[in-house]
Specification:
Strand content: under 5%
Order of helices and strands: HHHH
Helix content: 55-70%
Radius of gyration: 14 Å
Structural class: mainly alpha
Distance between the termini: 37 Å
Number of helices: 4
Largest sheet: none
Oligomer: single chain
Number of strands: 0
């Protein structure tokens, strides 16, 4: 028996109800790539090819960002990458402002 249905419209509970590889989300990765001297297209394509694993629950946020860290030899920790992603997403989407 279903006791509760939750609708998340506008990113209140979850930052993005669609793929991580949406336009506002990708801009965070593009900015990170530029700061790290990586071709933005490389990181964008990598995220697009792997974000469904995160969204389908086949990996944790930590594993997702650790995978990106390892692939591109980034100095930030997976937690720092997640924080960068969240702060950039909030800035662009003006969540909770």
């Amino acid at each position: 028996m279903i006791k509760c249905i939750i609708f998340d419209i506008g990113g209140v509970l979850i930052l993005s109800s669609s793929r991580v590889s949406t336009s506002p989300s990708l801009s965070a990765f593009k900015e990170l790539a530029k700061n790290e001297g990586i071709r933005p297209a490389d990181i964008v394509n990598y995220v697009r090819n792997n974000d469904l694993k995160l969204l389908n629950g086949k990996m944790t946020e930590y594993e997702f960002f650790n995978m990106i860290k390892s692939k591109f030899n980034l100095k930030e920790t997976p937690r720092q990458l997640l924080d960068i992603f969240i702060s950039h997403y909030r800035r662009l989407s003006k969540l909770n402002s």
